[in-house]
From TrEMBL, chains A, B:
Keywords assigned by UniProt, alphabetized: DNA-binding, Transcription, Transcription regulation
Location of the HTH lacI-type domain: 5-59
SMART domains, alphabetized: HTH_LACI
Name of the protein in question: LacI family DNA-binding transcriptional regulator
Pfam families (alphabetical): LacI, Peripla_BP_1
Gene Ontology MF terms in the entry: DNA-binding transcription factor activity; transcription cis-regulatory region binding
Length: 338, 338
DNA sequence: GTGAAAGCGCTAACAA
DNA sequence: TTGTTAGCGCTTTCAC
C-alpha cells in the first residue's frame, strides 16, 4: 500500500509552511492567492487527504454516533436504522453500528469501546443493561438518546407504558377469545408489554395461565420450538399476543408447518407493524408504531443534544411513541361460532 | 459534560510517569506490581478510558471498516450487512455505514470521507461509480472488497455473469410465456442481469419488445408507477423478470391493487431470495443467492486482506456467487390453457 | 500574510 | 523497572 501523504509532504512540495497549508485547507485565515494556488496544486498532486483522527484529537469532535442495537434480523431494527441514518447523514455525522445480540456483556463492552473512540453521542436501542450500570457508564459523560430502554437520564423515546399491549390483548378479548397466550420477554424496556397483557386479562376477567406465557429468546429456533410446544398443548390457546411482529411471523410459520390455520384455528396479533407485515401470507393484525419516524427523531435529537451540549439535567425527557391498532387478517372473531 | 481524563491525569494521580501508565495498560513491558496497582487504582478512580484516536494516530490502525451500500430499504442489504457484521465483530472491527442512495456523487463523497478517517478497509456494495474513478480513488491506497460491483482491482464478489437471469427468463419461457417483461436497471454491476434477460429471449426466439423493459428507479413509488403503466398496456406481458426481490414485491403489491392476480393473471420471478420472499402473500419464485454467507465472506475477506496487507495485485480475484432457482408460487405454467 | 512552536493524547525508543 | 523525549498529523496561538 502506498504511503499516504501528510500535511508535511504538501507543505514541502508547495514550499510553504504547514500552517499555511492548514490555513488554505480550512479557510481560517486569509492566505495569499499565490500560496493557496501552490497548496492546491500540491494537494492535487499528492492526492492529500487530511487525517480525520489528527483533526479530531484537536477538535474533540469525531462526527460519529454509536448505535447500540440488539440485531439486524428483526426487521424493526433496520427500519429504525434507516430513519436514524437519514436524519444524521444530512448533518454530516456517521453511524457506527454495534450489534449486541441482546447480550448485556456485549452491550457493555461495546459502549466502553465507543467511549474510547470518543463518539459524539449514543443511540441505544432496547438496552439490556441495568439503569445503575447505564448511569455509571454514561451519565454526564456523553450525549445519549435511548429508544425503548427506559433509562432515568438522557432523552428517552419510549412506549406509552403498558397501554399498547393492553389494547392488543383487549382486542383479542373483545373478539371473543378466552384462551390467550403471550410470547415475548420480561426484561427492562419490553417488560411493559407483558404488564399490559396481564392488566387486560385481569381487567376483563380472563383466566391467566402460566403455561400460556412464553418467555422466549430471540432466535427463530427458540421461538419456533416454544410455539410448537405451546400449540401442542391439549388445551391450546385460540389467540396469541406476540410482543413483536418478528415473533408473530415466526409463530405464523410454525403454525403453518403444523397445519394450523391462521386465523381460523389460531388468531395472532403482533407489535411494531414492520413494513412487511401487510404483505405476508396472512396480513398481520398488529400494533402499529412509526418506526421510521422514531429513527428520524432519535437521529435529530441526538444531534441537537450534541450541538447544544445540553447537560443531562436539561435533556432528560420522555417522548412517547404514538401507536394504533391495525386490523388486518390474522385475528378471527370467536363470537360467531362459539 | 465532565472533562474526560487523560493518561496524564492517571499518571499524576498514581504518581508515576505516563509511560508507566501506558505500559501497564498495554502490557508491553514488565512493570512492578506496586506501580501497576497504583495505576489500576487511578484508572478506576478517574474512570479513565484511553483515547482510541490518539492510539490510532500512532498505530495507523482504526479497527474500522467502511461499508458503502446503496440503502437499507431493500432487505437484501440489511441481510448482507448482518453477515458482514458477524464476520467482522469477532475480529474486533467495527462497521461504519454509508448509505449512497444509489447516487454516485454521494458514494464518491463518502469514500473520500472514509479515506480521511483512515478506515482499515472498504466493503463496497453495488457501486455506481465508474471503474476509472474507483481505481483512481482507491487502488493501491487501501484494502477493498467489492460486492456486485465489478471493479478491475480488489477482491470481487460477483454473480456468475449473466447466467442467473438467463435461467430465470428461460424458466418463464419454458413455462410457456411468450410475452415477458423485465424490470431493473442497466448500470455497472446489475447490468449483467439485463444481459442475461436479453440472451434468453434471443436464444429461445421470444420476441424482445422495448416497451417491456422497465429501466426504473429504486423507490417504491417509481417501481409502482412503472408497473402500473406496464400492466395497463393493451397487450401486457404475462410474465415479469424482476431484477431483485424488492422490486418483485413492489410489483406484486401494485398488481394486487389493480386486481391482477398472481400467478393466474401475471407470473413473476424475482432475484435474491431475501428471507421474507417465502412468507409473502404469494411466495415468490426467485433466484436464490446466499446473501448472509456472502456478507460473511466479504467480512472475512476484507480482514484477511487488511491483516496480511496483501497488495492489490495479489488480492485481485473474483469470487462467483452460486445461485439456484427456487420454485414457489408466483409463476404459472401457460401450457395448460394456452 | 506567514512561519515557528506548542500541544491534542498517546506509544515507543532511549537512557538511566 | 522507570522516566524523559520524540513524534503520530494536525490546528492554533504567537511573533514577525
Amino acid at each position: 500500500m502506498d504511503r499516504v501523504s501528510t500535511i508535511k509532504d504538501v507543505a514541502k512540495l508547495a514550499n510553504v509552511s504547514i500552517s499555511t497549508v492548514s490555513r488554505v485547507l480550512n479557510g481560517t485565515t486569509p492566505v495569499s492567492k499565490e500560496s493557496s494556488d501552490k497548496v492546491y496544486k500540491a494537494v492535487e498532486v499528492l492526492d492529500y487527504k487530511p487525517n480525520a483522527m489528527a483533526r479530531s484529537l484537536i477538535s474533540k469532535k469525531t462526527m460519529t454516533i454509536a448505535v447500540i442495537i440488539p440485531n439486524l434480523s428483526n426487521l424493526f431494527f433496520p427500519e429504525l436504522l434507516r430513519g436514524i441514518s437519514k436524519a444524521v447523514e444530512k448533518e454530516g455525522y456517521f453511524l457506527i453500528i454495534c450489534n449486541t445480540d441482546y447480550s448485556s456483556e456485549k452491550e457493555e463492552k461495546y459502549i466502553n469501546q465507543m467511549l474510547e473512540r470518543r463518539v459524539d453521542g449514543f443511540i441505544i436501542v432496547s438496552s439490556s443493561i441495568s439503569n445503575e450500570k447505564l448511569t455509571q457508564m454514561l451519565k454526564g459523560k456523553t450525549s445519549v438518546v435511548f429508544v425503548y430502554s427506559y433509562a432515568d437520564f438522557g432523552y428517552n423515546i419510549m412506549e406509552d407504558g403498558i397501554k399498547a399491549t393492553y389494547d392488543a390483548t383487549k382486542y383479542l378479548i373483545h373478539m371473543g377469545h378466552k384462551k390467550i397466550a403471550c410470547i415475548g420477554w420480561r426484561f427492562k424496556g419490553v417488560n411493559v408489554r407483558y404488564m399490559g397483557f396481564r392488566k387486560a386479562l385481569e381487567e376483563f376477567n380472563v383466566d391467566f395461565r402460566n403455561e400460556y406465557v412464553i418467555d422466549c429468546g430471540y432466535s427463530k429456533e427458540e421461538i419456533t420450538n416454544n410455539t410448537i410446544k405451546l400449540l401442542k398443548m391439549k388445551d391450546r390457546p385460540t389467540g396469541i399476543v406476540a410482543f413483536n411482529d418478528d415473533t408473530a411471523i415466526a409463530i405464523m410459520m410454525a403454525a403453518k408447518d403444523m397445519g394450523i390455520k391462521i386465523p381460523e384455528d389460531l388468531s395472532i396479533i403482533g407489535y411494531d407493524n414492520i413494513s412487511i407485515s401487510n404483505i405476508l401470507l396472512k396480513p398481520l393484525t398488529t400494533i402499529s408504531v412509526p418506526i421510521h419516524k422514531m429513527g428520524i427523531n432519535a437521529g435529530k435529537k441526538i444531534i441537537q443534544i450534541i450541538d447544544n451540549s445540553i447537560s443531562y439535567s436539561d435533556t432528560y425527557r420522555e417522548e412517547y411513541i404514538p401507536y394504533e391498532l391495525i386490523e388486518r387478517e390474522s385475528v378471527k372473531s370467536m363470537d360467531i361460532d362459539s
